[in-house]
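PROTOCOL LOG
Step 1. Enter all chains and additional molecules of the complex.
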Amino acid sequence: MINEPIGSVLMAGGGIAGIQAALDLADSGFYVYLVEKSAGIGGAMSQLDKTFPTNDCAM
Amino acid sequence: MNIELLTLSEIEAVTGEQGNFTVKIRKNPRFIDEDKCIACGLCAEKCPKKVEDEYNTGLSKRKAAYIKYGQTVPLKYAIDPVNCIYQTKGKCGVCTKVCPTGAINHDMTVEHVELNVGSVILSPGFKPFSPAGIDYYGYDEIPDVVTSLEYERMLSASGPFTGHLKKLSDGKDPEKIAWIQCVGSRNTNCAANGYCSSVCCMYAIKQAVMTQAHQPEGHGEQTIFYMDIRTPGKEYERYYESSKDKGVRYVRARPHSLIKGPDGVGVTMTWADDTGKTHDEYFDMVVLSIGLESPEDAETLAQAGGFKLDRFGFADTSSFDPVATSHPGVYVTGAFHSPKAIPQSVALASTAAARAKADLAPARGTLAIEKKFIEEFDIEGQEKRIGVFVCACGTNIASVVDVNAVAEYAASLEGVIHVENNLFTCSTDTQDLIAKTILDKELNAIVIAACTPRTHEPLFQETLQNSGLNKYMVEMANIRNMNSWVHPNEPEKATDKAKAQVRMAVAKVARNYPLTDIEVNITPRALVVGAGAAGMSAALSLADQGYETVLIEKQDQPGGMANYLDKTWKGEEIQSHLKALTQKISSHEMIQFHTNTELTAVSGFVGSFVGELTQGEDTLDIEFGTCVIATGARESEPAEYLYKKDNRVMTSLEFDLWVSREPDFAASCNSIAFIQCVGSRDDQKPYCSRVCCTQSIKKAVEVKTTNPAADVFIFYRDIRTYSDKELLFEKARELGVIFIRYELDSKPEVITSGDTLTIKGFDPILQLPVELDVDKLVLASAIVPNDANPFVEMFKCSVNSDGFLMESHPKLKPVDSTVDGVFLAGMCHYPKPVDEAIAQGEAAASRASVILSKKTLKLDAIKSAVTHNCDGCALCVDVCPYNAIELVINDQAATKNRVIKTNQALCKGCGICAATCPKEGVVINGFTMNQLKAQVDAILETV
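Step 2. Run joint prediction.
Step 3. Record the structure below.
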């Protein structure tokens, strides 16, 4: 571990987990590169209709 | 602003070390300039090449120029080079011709980018298991056999069938649908996937329930074929039970062959019941509940990131540092960690963020950007000079609504001195133009007639701020979503409606006044209540991130329930980890640790709480900005099976403790039985305690490993060894542990006669009654939460009907409580094993540090305010859902008075108080009665 770390984070994967981690980091004073393989973020959750157990719309 | 999105990009290599990595990224070309694309959709509309839409699992077509889905971020089109005619054959280029902004660029090439970062977090997700090629499921042959992901798209209103379910064979409505669980999970035969995918039971139940809701009364029959129903999460068991009441049928069987139904329609399925009798049953459709596999690029990522995978291709991690890979500074989260549902993924994402934040604490704020605006100009006392900007949204609005007529009409309205039509009001150049026009024409109120404020109001507020005009001087008229999109066939009426919408917005903005956002100071200190595994992990993470933390524990020593556990299911020593954790907590300069201490009173709100700590007779007031509650849970005392009547009958924890004193027990044990779900999943406690199956099987394996001659029995209802814990279940069966299933209405019976302890039950496999004499009987008794009512009283947070503290949102905010600034970790939220408690503790620390990292908290200005009309009737006090209003009685004044006081930090501006108040004694800034009345009058003007 070096003494003067870099204040940015690379977040690979823009599904719900990647988005949450990126938001937590960016909202706490870090710069985030959110790297996503496809043309848009959202991941598998964006394909779901409703979610268990609240039947909320996944989108 | 501090998130830079790189789409169509992949990691090529990671070099460097924790704190300073260089990551090589391959950025594939989009062939559409993101800065110029306005998402009008013309490229896709005119693109001649149709291909299978992978977003809709191939059930519909998209074009080679496409967006993934309507709400995709970034909302920018892309050209898929594999299918694009121009990219493959050098001809076509229709998109280039039709694009109104010149965004198409077929000459874009792959870019290689190097990024310098302190930490790397990987969350590549999972690959859905493909049932193709497995003959007995018939997926390749039978059109009405679909995967659960395909079915999800079929159910979706935004899916290929707009939510109208139909059979793929004949397009007719299906009535009778079956789900087959564990397709590609818990299966070492057709797939080398010995683990449980953890999510399929839940989604299948949900799909069955949603399907039922799609079908007319009296129609439809949903059947789920399963091995064990695994619903071991918060509110999961209740949903499962309620699905039975809604008519979902559950059959415990693993169907072994599926063939096409008569005339190629539907499916005939053969399955065997408990007695061995086979049934041929016809279904209109069969849904295969496919499992989650490690992502396709797992191997490549592991190589690039320099870390190890487990045998199934998921990241190899430990229970005590759940997101850390074998490469320091590289973390994993989401389903790549292990198959998991959304709430666990979201929580573990915060865990990964917490680890990175701790590593990079000295560099916090060095690269993050803070937006600064120019000074606001004063408009007090000025006449309103209103500007109206009418958007065409490409053709989105203009193809239905006559936008020129709307603009012309707007110009006739009182106070309007400037009107403009824009092709895309939201485009960057129009934003600059609006800011300039505000200054040039001295506008002090703006109406944007375009789309929804839900997505675009912040953008236009910023435009105003860039010109120096107060951001609350803008109103939006949603003439797209609420008009052109829903009235495409009535353009004249739509245009009239758009005029009315603009009239309303102008009427409102004429009564707008500048508002100032609220700033609340944040006390830079966290309070963590409860020093079990979760609480200690939360405190340590916060301290490592550089925040002063006060950790309190009610008992005289830390550790909580973890003190009673010896090993994790993987065999890691819990006590040595706990010892190390305690050592770190006690010696950390940022942590004040108090035992025998309780939180006895709280006042204040997010950012500035004041709490009273009580230690014996002494009390101490502390200020804190945020709080993590980690007060844990405990094992309940069984009320059956001769517990406390025969000393050979003990609970799981008592058994653990007893074994630790009698280490030779296993070697001398002849027979032992475990009974699962003792006090769980019944009327009294209708939830699953999540940990007991794994706990009992772990003990059974230990006994059987030491002494293979011992008879070990487990009486169970469903074995719930979710995720890779399934491997333990497999091992237990290999070792010869005997599993005997029972139902809630036919529980085993425990009797003593003389010295013999006997369990009587019925074995559904043998179809025979069994009587087993055992040396010891272990009861896996339910886990119950410690009393959370004091927290409900102090913080006004909530508990569910089982007494577990409630999260703010079960999916998206799983560690935030229902009160801002208060977070949940560990078993006070729900029963969970030690690795999940640690992960949630660190996740809570990440959520808490989002607040602590700032000096002040900015809140919007749409808040309640008390007027001179208030006479203290206090009707609003009870209806406020956020406890933001209190009644102040002033006895000292010459004339006694009562008046309410609102707390701006707690107020969410919902407006219930204003709607309840009979005399406008309380109003919502930005939505006053005066403003709302003006809008209503404006809409009624032509009626």
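Step 4. Note key features.
The first helix of chain A runs from residue 16 to 26.
DSSP finds one helix and four strands in chain A.
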